[in-house]
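Hello Y.,

Per our agreement to keep a running log of every chain we model this quarter, I'm adding this entry. I've kept the format consistent with earlier entries: sequence first, then predicted structure.
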Amino acid sequence: MKLEFAAAFACLTVVSVFMWKSQPNQSVQGKTPLVWTSDDNPLRKEQIDLFNRQHQSLNLQLDPNNQGLEKVIVQSLAGVGPDLIDCRDANQLAAYVKAGIAWDVTEELKSRGIDVRAQTWACMHPTAIYDNRVYGVPTNCAANAIWLNRKVFEELKVPIPKTPWTWQEFIALSQKLTKRDSSGRLERIGFLFDWWNAYHFVATFGGREFTPDGTRSDLDSPQAIASIQLMHDLVYKYKVTPSPVEESGMASAGGWGSGTINTFGSNRAAMALGGRWWLANMRSFKGLQLSVVASPFDLVPACSTAGRSTLINARSPRRKEALEFLVYLASKEYGALINDQADGISAFKAQSAGPAFENNPRHPEETYNSTWRQVTETAVGQEGSPYINGQVAKRIFDKQLDLVRVDAKSAEQAMKDAAREVNEEIKKKLAEDPILFQRWTSATGHAP
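Predicted structure for the entry above:
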Protein backbone atom coordinates (compact mmCIF):
# COMPACT_ATOMS: atom_id res chain seq x y z
CA MET A 1 0.00 0.00 0.00
CA LYS A 2 2.82 2.41 0.87
CA LEU A 3 4.42 1.71 -2.48
CA GLU A 4 1.13 2.50 -4.23
CA PHE A 5 0.85 5.83 -2.41
CA ALA A 6 4.47 6.64 -3.21
CA ALA A 7 3.93 5.83 -6.86
CA ALA A 8 0.79 7.94 -7.00
CA PHE A 9 2.58 10.85 -5.32
CA ALA A 10 5.50 10.55 -7.72
CA CYS A 11 3.16 10.59 -10.72
CA LEU A 12 1.33 13.60 -9.31
CA THR A 13 4.60 15.41 -8.77
CA VAL A 14 5.76 14.75 -12.34
CA VAL A 15 2.44 15.90 -13.77
CA SER A 16 2.43 18.98 -11.56
CA VAL A 17 5.95 20.02 -12.58
CA PHE A 18 5.04 19.57 -16.24
CA MET A 19 1.90 21.65 -15.84
CA TRP A 20 3.76 24.31 -13.91
CA LYS A 21 6.31 24.60 -16.70
CA SER A 22 3.52 24.86 -19.29
CA GLN A 23 2.04 27.94 -17.63
CA PRO A 24 2.57 31.29 -19.35
CA ASN A 25 5.67 33.25 -18.39
CA GLN A 26 4.50 36.17 -16.27
CA SER A 27 7.64 37.70 -14.85
CA VAL A 28 7.00 41.43 -14.98
CA GLN A 29 9.10 43.37 -12.53
CA GLY A 30 7.17 45.00 -9.71
CA LYS A 31 3.84 43.36 -10.58
CA THR A 32 1.97 40.49 -8.96
CA PRO A 33 1.26 37.76 -11.52
CA LEU A 34 -2.19 36.22 -11.93
CA VAL A 35 -3.04 33.22 -14.13
CA TRP A 36 -6.55 32.92 -15.58
CA THR A 37 -7.49 29.52 -16.98
CA SER A 38 -10.04 30.20 -19.72
CA ASP A 39 -10.57 29.52 -23.42
CA ASP A 40 -8.41 31.19 -26.05
CA ASN A 41 -11.21 33.21 -27.61
CA PRO A 42 -9.53 36.23 -29.27
CA LEU A 43 -11.88 38.48 -27.30
CA ARG A 44 -10.08 37.55 -24.08
CA LYS A 45 -7.09 39.74 -25.01
CA GLU A 46 -9.04 42.99 -24.85
CA GLN A 47 -10.76 41.86 -21.65
CA ILE A 48 -7.38 41.15 -20.04
CA ASP A 49 -5.79 44.33 -21.34
CA LEU A 50 -8.56 46.44 -19.80
CA PHE A 51 -8.06 44.77 -16.42
CA ASN A 52 -4.28 45.24 -16.52
CA ARG A 53 -4.63 48.92 -17.43
CA GLN A 54 -6.95 49.43 -14.46
CA HIS A 55 -4.68 47.46 -12.06
CA GLN A 56 -1.11 48.62 -12.61
CA SER A 57 0.27 46.49 -9.76
CA LEU A 58 -1.10 43.26 -11.25
CA ASN A 59 -0.25 41.30 -14.39
CA LEU A 60 -3.05 39.01 -15.54
CA GLN A 61 -2.29 36.48 -18.25
CA LEU A 62 -4.32 33.78 -19.94
CA ASP A 63 -3.56 30.07 -19.73
CA PRO A 64 -5.83 28.28 -22.24
CA ASN A 65 -3.92 24.99 -22.18
CA ASN A 66 -4.90 23.62 -18.77
CA GLN A 67 -8.61 24.35 -18.45
CA GLY A 68 -9.83 20.76 -18.17
CA LEU A 69 -11.57 20.01 -14.88
CA GLU A 70 -9.21 17.19 -13.90
CA LYS A 71 -6.13 19.19 -14.88
CA VAL A 72 -7.16 22.16 -12.78
CA ILE A 73 -7.89 20.00 -9.74
CA VAL A 74 -4.58 18.10 -10.01
CA GLN A 75 -2.61 21.31 -10.49
CA SER A 76 -4.32 23.02 -7.58
CA LEU A 77 -3.92 20.11 -5.17
CA ALA A 78 -0.22 20.05 -6.08
CA GLY A 79 0.10 23.77 -5.34
CA VAL A 80 0.75 24.91 -8.92
CA GLY A 81 -2.79 25.64 -10.07
CA PRO A 82 -4.09 28.83 -11.69
CA ASP A 83 -5.30 31.74 -9.61
CA LEU A 84 -8.56 32.12 -11.53
CA ILE A 85 -10.64 29.28 -12.94
CA ASP A 86 -13.52 29.39 -15.39
CA CYS A 87 -16.61 27.33 -14.55
CA ARG A 88 -19.24 26.57 -17.18
CA ASP A 89 -21.97 24.60 -15.40
CA ALA A 90 -23.34 23.41 -12.09
CA ASN A 91 -21.53 20.10 -12.31
CA GLN A 92 -18.12 21.74 -12.66
CA LEU A 93 -18.84 24.07 -9.75
CA ALA A 94 -19.85 21.15 -7.53
CA ALA A 95 -16.64 19.31 -8.43
CA TYR A 96 -14.44 22.31 -7.61
CA VAL A 97 -16.23 22.96 -4.31
CA LYS A 98 -16.08 19.32 -3.19
CA ALA A 99 -12.38 19.15 -4.08
CA GLY A 100 -11.69 22.20 -1.92
CA ILE A 101 -10.50 24.17 -4.94
CA ALA A 102 -13.18 26.89 -5.17
CA TRP A 103 -12.81 29.73 -2.64
CA ASP A 104 -16.01 30.84 -0.92
CA VAL A 105 -16.17 34.55 -1.77
CA THR A 106 -19.64 35.26 -0.35
CA GLU A 107 -18.49 37.68 2.34
CA GLU A 108 -15.65 39.19 0.30
CA LEU A 109 -18.02 40.13 -2.53
CA LYS A 110 -20.66 41.40 -0.12
CA SER A 111 -18.10 43.75 1.43
CA ARG A 112 -17.44 45.13 -2.08
CA GLY A 113 -21.13 45.74 -2.76
CA ILE A 114 -21.57 42.77 -5.13
CA ASP A 115 -24.65 40.58 -4.74
CA VAL A 116 -24.39 37.86 -7.38
CA ARG A 117 -27.82 36.41 -6.65
CA ALA A 118 -29.65 39.73 -6.87
CA GLN A 119 -27.63 41.47 -9.57
CA THR A 120 -27.02 38.75 -12.18
CA TRP A 121 -29.28 36.70 -14.42
CA ALA A 122 -30.79 33.71 -12.63
CA CYS A 123 -29.73 31.34 -15.42
CA MET A 124 -26.07 31.99 -14.50
CA HIS A 125 -26.42 31.22 -10.79
CA PRO A 126 -25.68 27.47 -11.16
CA THR A 127 -22.17 28.37 -12.36
CA ALA A 128 -21.44 30.62 -9.37
CA ILE A 129 -23.61 29.62 -6.40
CA TYR A 130 -23.49 26.26 -4.60
CA ASP A 131 -25.50 25.42 -1.48
CA ASN A 132 -26.38 29.11 -1.10
CA ARG A 133 -22.72 30.14 -1.00
CA VAL A 134 -21.10 32.26 -3.71
CA TYR A 135 -17.92 30.92 -5.30
CA GLY A 136 -17.62 33.03 -8.43
CA VAL A 137 -18.83 35.91 -10.56
CA PRO A 138 -20.47 35.29 -13.96
CA THR A 139 -18.35 36.64 -16.80
CA ASN A 140 -21.03 36.67 -19.49
CA CYS A 141 -24.40 35.18 -20.40
CA ALA A 142 -25.38 33.64 -23.73
CA ALA A 143 -29.04 32.65 -23.96
CA ASN A 144 -30.31 30.94 -27.10
CA ALA A 145 -32.71 32.43 -29.63
CA ILE A 146 -33.58 31.94 -33.29
CA TRP A 147 -31.33 33.70 -35.77
CA LEU A 148 -33.08 34.73 -39.00
CA ASN A 149 -31.44 35.33 -42.37
CA ARG A 150 -33.51 38.33 -43.49
CA LYS A 151 -32.27 38.01 -47.07
CA VAL A 152 -34.00 34.63 -47.42
CA PHE A 153 -37.20 35.96 -45.85
CA GLU A 154 -37.25 38.93 -48.18
CA GLU A 155 -36.54 36.86 -51.30
CA LEU A 156 -39.41 34.51 -50.50
CA LYS A 157 -41.63 37.38 -49.31
CA VAL A 158 -42.12 35.61 -45.99
CA PRO A 159 -42.84 37.93 -43.03
CA ILE A 160 -40.67 37.83 -39.93
CA PRO A 161 -42.46 35.57 -37.43
CA LYS A 162 -44.27 37.09 -34.50
CA THR A 163 -43.62 35.77 -31.02
CA PRO A 164 -44.56 34.05 -28.81
CA TRP A 165 -44.99 31.08 -31.12
CA THR A 166 -45.21 27.31 -30.93
CA TRP A 167 -43.01 24.58 -32.34
CA GLN A 168 -45.81 23.59 -34.73
CA GLU A 169 -45.88 27.12 -36.14
CA PHE A 170 -42.11 27.02 -36.39
CA ILE A 171 -42.09 23.68 -38.24
CA ALA A 172 -44.52 25.00 -40.87
CA LEU A 173 -42.27 28.02 -41.44
CA SER A 174 -39.11 25.88 -41.56
CA GLN A 175 -40.63 23.67 -44.26
CA LYS A 176 -41.49 26.74 -46.30
CA LEU A 177 -37.91 28.03 -46.04
CA THR A 178 -36.20 24.69 -46.79
CA LYS A 179 -35.10 24.14 -50.38
CA ARG A 180 -34.28 20.79 -51.97
CA ASP A 181 -33.66 19.94 -55.62
CA SER A 182 -35.60 17.37 -57.64
CA SER A 183 -33.46 14.55 -56.26
CA GLY A 184 -34.07 15.64 -52.67
CA ARG A 185 -30.61 17.13 -52.16
CA LEU A 186 -30.62 19.90 -49.56
CA GLU A 187 -29.84 23.26 -51.14
CA ARG A 188 -31.00 25.58 -48.36
CA ILE A 189 -31.44 24.55 -44.73
CA GLY A 190 -34.68 25.69 -43.16
CA PHE A 191 -33.42 25.37 -39.60
CA LEU A 192 -29.89 24.76 -38.36
CA PHE A 193 -29.09 23.52 -34.87
CA ASP A 194 -26.40 21.65 -32.96
CA TRP A 195 -27.39 18.46 -31.17
CA TRP A 196 -25.37 19.51 -28.13
CA ASN A 197 -28.11 22.13 -27.66
CA ALA A 198 -30.55 19.36 -26.67
CA TYR A 199 -31.26 20.94 -23.28
CA HIS A 200 -32.66 23.96 -25.08
CA PHE A 201 -35.37 21.78 -26.57
CA VAL A 202 -35.94 20.09 -23.21
CA ALA A 203 -36.41 23.48 -21.54
CA THR A 204 -39.01 24.62 -24.10
CA PHE A 205 -41.11 21.54 -23.30
CA GLY A 206 -40.90 22.22 -19.56
CA GLY A 207 -38.60 19.23 -19.07
CA ARG A 208 -35.64 18.82 -16.77
CA GLU A 209 -32.44 16.81 -16.56
CA PHE A 210 -33.01 15.95 -12.88
CA THR A 211 -35.90 16.15 -10.47
CA PRO A 212 -35.90 19.44 -8.50
CA ASP A 213 -34.15 17.81 -5.53
CA GLY A 214 -31.59 16.16 -7.84
CA THR A 215 -32.27 12.70 -6.44
CA ARG A 216 -33.05 11.08 -9.78
CA SER A 217 -32.91 11.68 -13.51
CA ASP A 218 -35.96 13.25 -15.13
CA LEU A 219 -34.92 12.46 -18.70
CA ASP A 220 -37.64 9.81 -18.94
CA SER A 221 -40.41 12.35 -18.34
CA PRO A 222 -42.98 12.85 -21.13
CA GLN A 223 -41.69 16.40 -21.61
CA ALA A 224 -38.05 15.39 -22.05
CA ILE A 225 -38.97 12.53 -24.39
CA ALA A 226 -41.17 14.82 -26.51
CA SER A 227 -38.38 17.38 -26.84
CA ILE A 228 -35.86 14.82 -28.12
CA GLN A 229 -38.51 13.39 -30.42
CA LEU A 230 -38.89 16.86 -31.93
CA MET A 231 -35.16 17.04 -32.62
CA HIS A 232 -35.35 13.68 -34.39
CA ASP A 233 -38.43 14.71 -36.37
CA LEU A 234 -36.85 17.96 -37.56
CA VAL A 235 -34.27 15.79 -39.33
CA TYR A 236 -36.15 12.66 -40.42
CA LYS A 237 -39.85 13.59 -40.57
CA TYR A 238 -39.91 17.26 -41.53
CA LYS A 239 -36.49 17.22 -43.25
CA VAL A 240 -35.75 20.85 -42.50
CA THR A 241 -32.26 20.25 -41.15
CA PRO A 242 -29.42 18.00 -42.39
CA SER A 243 -29.22 14.34 -41.50
CA PRO A 244 -25.82 12.95 -40.44
CA VAL A 245 -25.30 11.70 -44.00
CA GLU A 246 -26.13 15.12 -45.42
CA GLU A 247 -23.83 16.73 -42.87
CA SER A 248 -20.95 14.60 -44.16
CA GLY A 249 -21.71 15.57 -47.73
CA MET A 250 -21.83 19.25 -46.88
CA ALA A 251 -18.56 18.97 -44.94
CA SER A 252 -16.78 17.52 -47.97
CA ALA A 253 -18.16 20.41 -50.02
CA GLY A 254 -16.87 22.98 -47.52
CA GLY A 255 -20.21 23.57 -45.79
CA TRP A 256 -21.09 21.92 -42.52
CA GLY A 257 -17.53 21.01 -41.64
CA SER A 258 -16.61 24.68 -41.35
CA GLY A 259 -18.93 25.01 -38.36
CA THR A 260 -22.57 25.83 -37.71
CA ILE A 261 -21.90 29.56 -37.44
CA ASN A 262 -20.04 29.67 -40.74
CA THR A 263 -22.70 27.56 -42.43
CA PHE A 264 -25.36 30.02 -41.37
CA GLY A 265 -23.18 33.06 -42.03
CA SER A 266 -22.55 31.94 -45.61
CA ASN A 267 -26.28 32.03 -46.40
CA ARG A 268 -26.79 28.26 -46.43
CA ALA A 269 -29.59 28.37 -43.87
CA ALA A 270 -32.68 30.48 -43.26
CA MET A 271 -32.87 30.05 -39.48
CA ALA A 272 -30.53 28.79 -36.77
CA LEU A 273 -30.50 28.21 -33.03
CA GLY A 274 -27.71 30.11 -31.33
CA GLY A 275 -26.66 32.88 -28.98
CA ARG A 276 -25.56 36.48 -29.31
CA TRP A 277 -21.96 35.28 -29.05
CA TRP A 278 -22.31 34.18 -32.69
CA LEU A 279 -21.97 37.84 -33.66
CA ALA A 280 -18.28 37.82 -32.79
CA ASN A 281 -17.87 35.72 -35.95
CA MET A 282 -20.84 36.77 -38.04
CA ARG A 283 -19.90 40.45 -38.03
CA SER A 284 -17.13 39.46 -40.45
CA PHE A 285 -19.57 38.14 -43.08
CA LYS A 286 -20.18 40.83 -45.66
CA GLY A 287 -23.78 41.56 -46.62
CA LEU A 288 -25.30 39.25 -44.02
CA GLN A 289 -28.69 40.61 -42.96
CA LEU A 290 -29.81 39.33 -39.57
CA SER A 291 -32.69 39.41 -37.19
CA VAL A 292 -33.47 37.54 -33.98
CA VAL A 293 -36.66 36.23 -32.39
CA ALA A 294 -37.36 34.26 -29.24
CA SER A 295 -37.42 30.49 -29.55
CA PRO A 296 -40.70 28.67 -30.12
CA PHE A 297 -41.87 26.47 -27.28
CA ASP A 298 -44.33 23.75 -26.39
CA LEU A 299 -45.28 24.33 -22.76
CA VAL A 300 -42.82 26.86 -21.37
CA PRO A 301 -41.51 30.06 -23.03
CA ALA A 302 -37.95 29.24 -22.06
CA CYS A 303 -34.52 28.69 -23.58
CA SER A 304 -31.19 27.28 -22.53
CA THR A 305 -28.13 29.37 -21.91
CA ALA A 306 -24.37 29.12 -22.00
CA GLY A 307 -21.81 31.28 -20.27
CA ARG A 308 -19.10 31.20 -17.64
CA SER A 309 -18.34 32.21 -14.12
CA THR A 310 -14.83 32.76 -12.83
CA LEU A 311 -13.77 31.23 -9.52
CA ILE A 312 -10.73 31.86 -7.32
CA ASN A 313 -8.45 28.96 -6.49
CA ALA A 314 -8.73 28.48 -2.72
CA ARG A 315 -5.13 27.24 -2.67
CA SER A 316 -3.69 30.24 -4.49
CA PRO A 317 -1.39 32.44 -2.38
CA ARG A 318 -2.72 35.39 -4.40
CA ARG A 319 -6.40 35.08 -3.49
CA LYS A 320 -6.76 38.71 -2.40
CA GLU A 321 -5.22 39.95 -5.64
CA ALA A 322 -7.39 37.55 -7.65
CA LEU A 323 -10.44 38.99 -5.91
CA GLU A 324 -9.80 42.22 -7.81
CA PHE A 325 -10.54 40.35 -11.04
CA LEU A 326 -13.93 39.21 -9.73
CA VAL A 327 -14.71 42.79 -8.75
CA TYR A 328 -13.66 43.84 -12.26
CA LEU A 329 -16.11 41.32 -13.76
CA ALA A 330 -18.91 43.14 -11.95
CA SER A 331 -17.83 46.58 -13.17
CA LYS A 332 -19.68 48.74 -15.67
CA GLU A 333 -16.56 48.98 -17.82
CA TYR A 334 -16.27 45.22 -18.20
CA GLY A 335 -20.02 44.84 -18.81
CA ALA A 336 -19.91 47.47 -21.54
CA LEU A 337 -16.97 45.69 -23.16
CA ILE A 338 -18.79 42.31 -23.16
CA ASN A 339 -21.85 43.90 -24.74
CA ASP A 340 -19.79 45.73 -27.34
CA GLN A 341 -17.79 42.63 -28.24
CA ALA A 342 -21.00 40.55 -28.40
CA ASP A 343 -19.43 37.97 -26.11
CA GLY A 344 -23.00 37.11 -25.12
CA ILE A 345 -24.37 39.90 -22.93
CA SER A 346 -23.28 41.18 -19.55
CA ALA A 347 -24.23 38.79 -16.76
CA PHE A 348 -25.24 41.81 -14.66
CA LYS A 349 -28.83 42.70 -15.50
CA ALA A 350 -28.54 46.45 -15.07
CA GLN A 351 -25.66 46.62 -17.56
CA SER A 352 -27.69 45.04 -20.39
CA ALA A 353 -30.39 47.67 -20.54
CA GLY A 354 -30.92 51.13 -21.92
CA PRO A 355 -29.94 52.91 -25.16
CA ALA A 356 -26.22 52.11 -24.91
CA PHE A 357 -27.01 48.39 -25.02
CA GLU A 358 -29.93 48.44 -27.42
CA ASN A 359 -28.34 50.74 -30.02
CA ASN A 360 -24.63 50.22 -30.50
CA PRO A 361 -23.40 53.11 -32.73
CA ARG A 362 -20.55 50.90 -34.01
CA HIS A 363 -23.10 48.38 -35.25
CA PRO A 364 -26.32 50.26 -36.11
CA GLU A 365 -27.54 47.28 -38.15
CA GLU A 366 -27.96 45.27 -34.93
CA THR A 367 -31.44 46.48 -34.07
CA TYR A 368 -32.44 43.39 -32.11
CA ASN A 369 -30.39 43.67 -28.90
CA SER A 370 -33.52 44.10 -26.78
CA THR A 371 -34.54 40.60 -27.88
CA TRP A 372 -31.41 39.17 -26.27
CA ARG A 373 -32.39 40.73 -22.96
CA GLN A 374 -35.92 39.37 -23.36
CA VAL A 375 -34.79 35.78 -23.94
CA THR A 376 -32.24 35.96 -21.13
CA GLU A 377 -35.03 36.73 -18.70
CA THR A 378 -36.65 33.37 -19.53
CA ALA A 379 -33.42 31.36 -19.85
CA VAL A 380 -32.70 28.38 -17.62
CA GLY A 381 -29.25 27.40 -16.41
CA GLN A 382 -27.48 24.09 -16.69
CA GLU A 383 -28.78 21.71 -14.04
CA GLY A 384 -26.71 19.51 -11.79
CA SER A 385 -27.19 16.90 -9.08
CA PRO A 386 -25.09 16.48 -5.94
CA TYR A 387 -25.54 12.72 -6.23
CA ILE A 388 -23.68 12.07 -9.48
CA ASN A 389 -20.56 13.27 -11.24
CA GLY A 390 -21.74 15.70 -13.90
CA GLN A 391 -19.32 14.40 -16.49
CA VAL A 392 -20.68 10.87 -16.01
CA ALA A 393 -24.27 12.08 -16.42
CA LYS A 394 -23.30 14.00 -19.55
CA ARG A 395 -21.59 11.00 -21.12
CA ILE A 396 -24.67 8.86 -20.53
CA PHE A 397 -26.99 11.45 -22.05
CA ASP A 398 -24.71 12.17 -25.01
CA LYS A 399 -24.39 8.46 -25.82
CA GLN A 400 -28.15 8.00 -25.97
CA LEU A 401 -28.70 11.30 -27.79
CA ASP A 402 -26.24 10.27 -30.49
CA LEU A 403 -28.22 7.08 -31.10
CA VAL A 404 -31.32 9.20 -31.71
CA ARG A 405 -29.35 11.51 -33.96
CA VAL A 406 -28.28 8.67 -36.28
CA ASP A 407 -31.78 7.14 -36.16
CA ALA A 408 -30.56 4.02 -34.36
CA LYS A 409 -32.91 4.29 -31.38
CA SER A 410 -36.25 5.93 -30.66
CA ALA A 411 -36.29 9.06 -28.54
CA GLU A 412 -38.50 7.37 -25.96
CA GLN A 413 -36.25 4.35 -25.50
CA ALA A 414 -33.08 6.44 -25.53
CA MET A 415 -34.32 8.77 -22.79
CA LYS A 416 -35.62 5.89 -20.69
CA ASP A 417 -32.25 4.18 -21.00
CA ALA A 418 -30.44 7.41 -20.16
CA ALA A 419 -32.55 7.95 -17.04
CA ARG A 420 -32.06 4.34 -15.94
CA GLU A 421 -28.28 4.52 -16.35
CA VAL A 422 -28.07 7.85 -14.51
CA ASN A 423 -30.16 6.51 -11.65
CA GLU A 424 -27.94 3.44 -11.44
CA GLU A 425 -24.88 5.68 -11.18
CA ILE A 426 -26.58 7.66 -8.42
CA LYS A 427 -27.17 4.44 -6.47
CA LYS A 428 -23.51 3.50 -6.86
CA LYS A 429 -22.46 6.91 -5.56
CA LEU A 430 -24.79 6.64 -2.58
CA ALA A 431 -23.34 3.23 -1.68
CA GLU A 432 -19.84 4.76 -1.63
CA ASP A 433 -20.62 7.98 0.25
CA PRO A 434 -22.45 7.79 3.63
CA ILE A 435 -22.91 11.57 3.76
CA LEU A 436 -24.60 11.66 0.34
CA PHE A 437 -26.65 8.62 1.35
CA GLN A 438 -27.98 10.47 4.40
CA ARG A 439 -28.69 13.57 2.32
CA TRP A 440 -30.55 11.50 -0.29
CA THR A 441 -32.69 9.63 2.24
CA SER A 442 -33.53 12.88 4.03
CA ALA A 443 -34.62 14.41 0.72
CA THR A 444 -36.74 11.45 -0.38
CA GLY A 445 -37.93 10.01 2.91
CA HIS A 446 -36.95 6.48 1.92
CA ALA A 447 -33.93 4.31 1.13
CA PRO A 448 -32.57 4.11 -2.44
